Every structure is written in C-alpha cells, then in structure tokens.
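Reopening: Signal peptidase I still failing for me.
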Amino acid sequence: MVTGAIGYVLGNILGSGSAWPLLTKGDLVIGRNFALSFQPGVMVRAEIDGKSMIKRIHGVPGDQITICDGLVYVNDIAYQQVNNWVGFRFENAAQCQREYRKLQLAADEYFVLGDNTNQSRDSRQYGPVPKSVLYENFLYAIRDDMTVRYLTVEFVAPAEHKGAGQ
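Support: Ran it again with your exact input. Result attached.
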C-alpha cells in the first residue's frame, strides 16, 4: 500500500481471497488513513501478528459475540456476504453441533471477519482486536475492467417475524 501526502491509500490486492468475491487478486483498492470509521460494515486494514490484513468490522465495543459452528452472531444476528448482508437471528445453542462460544467485547475491542469466511483467518481464530491495530478504511476497489465497487456495506436487520393474521 502507498500512502499519499493527503492521507489516501492506494494498493493492489495480492492475497488470500478472504474478501472474495468483493476483492480479487489484482484489484486496486483506495482507502484513507484519516477520519476513520469503526462501524459495522466498514472494511479496514488490520495489522495482526505482523501481517497486514483486510477485514470487515462486525462487532464493536459492548457487542455480544456468539460463535456457533464458525458462524458469528453479533447481538444474536449474523450478517454474511452470501445473504447480501441481510441478517438472520441466532435461535439457540442447541443448533450448534461442533462449536459454541460467547464473549462480550470490551471498551476497545472489535470483531473483524473476512467476507469469504471459509478462506479467512480472522477474529474467530485470534479473538477480538484492539482499535490500535486498525489503520485504514478501504473505500473502493477498481477491477481491471474499470468496474468500481464501494467496499463499505450496510448490515440490514432481519425482518421481525409476525404471527398469523398480522
């Protein structure tokens, strides 16, 4: 990544595919390292264990995280790229076959995930990260065909279930 004098960042995606299909190898990404946002849905660069990674913020300070068989629920709602970021609710721990963990994010902790969770090493493995390791917001990706993608997504709360006749 190269940072310009005005604080914008340009770089090419070289990596693993943890943000696929939104980001693919060779994409040019544009970000900023000022006026940072740390809200759910924002894509950030995190420096973890000496490695630079691009991840999406899912959990923010105070959130309750539930992990069930690798799926992450924030305050009992999971958001995934494969569902176009429309959330779905956690029902109960009995649905978990292999794994069930709960944690509460502290005042300076964030839970970050790769969009392609099957190929991502993220907070599910290394735990919540402090704000101090989050350096940049990634704003746009430009593909070889000049397609531009906005990288921040809006998490959409699931519709409330209504009973019969409502």
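Helices lie at 123-126. If you still see a failure, please send the error message rather than a screenshot.
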